Amino acid sequence: MNEKIQVISKFALEGLETQGLHDEAMAAKQTLESGSGLGNDFLGWLHLPSSIDEEQLQAIGKSAAQLRSECEYVICIGIGGSYLGAKAVIEALSDHFAAYKSGNGPKVLFAGSNIGEDYLYDMIDLVKGHKFGIIVISKSGTTTEPGIAFRIFKDMLERQEGKEFAQRNIVAVTDARRGALRGLATQEGYATYVIPDDVGGRFSVLTPVGLLPIAVAGFDITALVAGAVEMEREGDEQVLNYAIARNALYRNGKKIEILANFTPRLHFLAEWWKQLYGESEGKGHKGIFPASVDFTTDLHSMGQMIQDGERTLFETVLSVGDQDHEVIIPSDEKDLDGLNYIAGKNVDYVNKMAELGTRLAHIDGGVPNLLITIPRLNERFVGQLIYFFEKACGVSGYMLGVNPFDQPGVEAYKKNMFALLEKPGYEEATAAIKAKLNK
Ligand code: PA5
C-alpha cells in the first residue's frame, strides 16, 4: 500500500513516557485479534472487509440499481449505528450542494434518527407526489425512532404509489431472525439484508447497513471496501500510534479529545467517530469524552475555549491532502480589501496555512496535537479511515480496561421514555416515575 492515512504524534507526546504503553497496546491488540477479551462475541467487524466477496457487493449493487431506477428520493431510516456510517460516508464523498442540484440518481434522505415532528412533516411535504423508496435499517428491529418513521413513510408510500411499488422499493436491513422488522419484512415480502449477529451497530458501516445507502447515493462500494482491506492488512502501525497516544494523554489529565477538521465534508465523519468512541469507551465512569469541531468555522466560536480554557483537552486534526477542485483567489487592481498578498493562490493553500497556524497556536496553548493525514477524500481513503478508527477503538478500549463492544448505558432513557408513554409492560416503572415527579 503506497498511499495511506498516517497518524503523526510528534506534537502530542512531548515529555510523556510511552514505552510501557507500547507494550500495553501490543497486548490489547493481541487480545482483540485472538478474540480473548471482553465482548468477544462482537468481533465480526475485525475481518469483515476482507471477507466481503464480489457476490455480496453485486447483490447490494442490484438493490441499489432498483431503487435508483424508480425513485426520485430514497429515505434511509435508522438511528445511531444504523444511520451515522452511511451519512458520514455519503457526506464525505458528495458535492456539498448536491441537494440543490439535479444530478444522476435519487436524493438520499435520512429519517428515524430523531423524533422531531416538524422534521418528519417537512420530509413528508418534500416527497409528497414524488416517487420514493425506503431503506429501513434496525438491527434489533424494535427501536422507537426508526419504528415511528417507518410506519409513517410505509403508510404514505403504499397510499401514494400502491402496494406493489412499495414492495419493490422498500428494503429492510435487520437481524437474520429476531425483531419486529424481520417479521414485518417477511410478511410484506420486502428484499432484506442481514446485519451479522457479531457486528454491533457502530461497527456496521461496511455491512449492508452502510453499503446499500452508499451505493444508492452513487458511490463505489468496491473501492470503499478495498480501502478498508488495505488498513485491515497493513494498518496496525497507525492503529497502535493512535491508541497509544490517546491513552498516554488520557492518563496525563487530558480527558477530552476534540476531532477537528478543516474540510466541511468531514462534519458527519466526526459525528460517526463520536458514536464509535463515545459508546465504546464511556463505561465504569471512565473514558475520553469525544468532541468535534469544524474549522475554520468553529475557530470563530470554540477557538477561544480550545486556546485558553481548562487544559483538559487534546486535539486530533483530520488533515486532507488534495482537494478535488481548484479555486484561485483573484487579483484586484484597487486592493481595497488588502487581500492582494494572497492573489493567485488557491483557496486550499490559505486553508492549509490556517490549519498549520491553528495547530501551532493550540500546541503553544497547552493542547497536545495529533495529526491524521488523509491523501484525499475518495472511497479508498474513506474506507481506510473507517477501518483504522474501528480497530484503534477496539485496541484503545481494551487499554482503558472496558468492554468496547457493549452499550448498557443507552437503555436508561428508553426505560423512562417507555414508562412515560405508558407502554404495556412498563406499569411499575410508570408508577415509580409518577411518584418521583410528584414528590
Ligand atoms: O451502536 C449501537 O449499537 C447503537 O447505536 C444502535 O446502532 C442504535 O441504537 C440503533 O439500534 P438498532 O439498529 O437496533 O435500531
Structure write-up:
Helices cover 49% and strands 14% of the residues. The chain is of the alpha/beta class and 439 residues long. The chain folds into 2 domains: 6-38 and 227-400, Glucose-6-phosphate isomerase like protein, domain 1 (Rossmann fold, 3-Layer(aba) Sandwich), CATH 3.40.50.10490; 48-224, Glucose-6-phosphate isomerase like protein, domain 1 (Rossmann fold), CATH 3.40.50. The strands form 2 sheets. A 5-stranded mixed sheet has the order 1-10-9-7-8, with helices on both faces. A 5-stranded parallel sheet has the order 3-2-4-5-6, sandwiched between helices. The radius of gyration is 23 Å and the shape is globular. The model has no long low-confidence stretch (mean pLDDT 96). Bound molecules: 5-phosphoarabinonic acid. 5-phosphoarabinonic acid binds at residues 79-82, 138-140, 143, 146, 200-202, 279, 407.
Helix content: 40-55%
Instruction: Write down the domain tally.
Output: 2
Mean pLDDT: 96
CATH fold assignment of the largest domain: Rossmann fold
How much strand? Answer: 5-15%
Ligands, deduplicated: 5-phosphoarabinonic acid
Named CATH architecture of the largest domain: 3-Layer(aba) Sandwich
Short structural summary:
The chain has 439 residues and is α/β, with parallel strands linked by helices.
